[in-house]
Please model this.
Amino acid sequence: MNIELFIRKNIRHLKPYSCARDEFQGIASVHLDANESPYNPNFNRYPDPLQRTLKEKIAEIKNVRPAQIMTANGSDEAIDLVFRIFCEPREDNVVAMEPTYGMYKVAADINDVEYRPVLLEENFQLNASKLLTTTDKHTKAVFLCSPNNPSGNLMNHEEIRAIIQNFNGIVVIDEAYVDFSTEQTWLKELDNYTNLIVLHTFSKAWGLASLRCGLAFASEEIIALFNKVKYPYNVNRLTQNQTLDELNYGDRKNTWVEMILTEREPLAEALKSLPVVEKIYKSDANFLLVKVRDADKTYRFLTEKGIIVRNRNKIPLCNNCLRITVGTPDENHALINALKDFSNCLNK
Ligand SMILES: *Cc1c(COP(=O)(O)O)cnc(C)c1O
Model:
């Protein structure tokens, strides 16, 4: 697929900002090129705009080449860049599944690009042909999320493949929750599909949400476009260094994932036994979508008890649903106890 055809004209012709230090990559002892302060040695120099050391480590862990990686100020930065690179405002559109992660629509709205939601099936499954009929010649990107937020389930592999193979444009697969699922990542297919962008993040399984480090993986051509359009110093030095350090503790991340998955099933069982709970949806992530009798009332009761969950009532297919993150055993007990109290209140 010729990616060149999908790039906005202004981006195709863009001459990117050139950082002072880009022009000289070598051993230098005197830096008088960037108007930095010569003082305060831990912080006075601009960080590496291409985050090269960090990418080498990520490449090892994710089994891709460094040139297939873009490190971002959270996945949200990568999502926004897809619009800025490929979508002509007021002319192009994107298609996404519904319900899904809210940032795709926010980024579309900010960039003044039409957003076309396509309802998932009742069981939150993806229907490729239905989604593809919603695309037209102005559709530049399709956003897929698997495991999906807020439903928690994996999208059918073959439906995703049908979209990648038949859609003439960029396909973004957001795998923010991939570490919690049994399915293989689409990273393995990067070399087979030049129109594929896979998003990962360190915000969930790795426990690093506060560092703001998200990842986009794609062909070298698409990554070069990301690098051209992004802010030069989009990932700061503290984040680069701390993320690099945390990546040495992959075993600890795996232990956390196992603890969360071990907690998820008893939590689901305990919730299921409560009279206020109507249904628990199958989850491949670190959260549960829970249908209750009255989501607004339940949400309010929990909030008063100091327990915050996500109220997804009113979102398509999520009537009376709460999205509940799997916490520590103590946090999960507190939730169950509060919901028992709530049931008792209703019976009085
Ligand atoms: C939490 C989440 C992210 C992570 O976003 P960051 O900006 O990397 O913190 C991305 N996609 C989905 C679907 C999410 O739920």
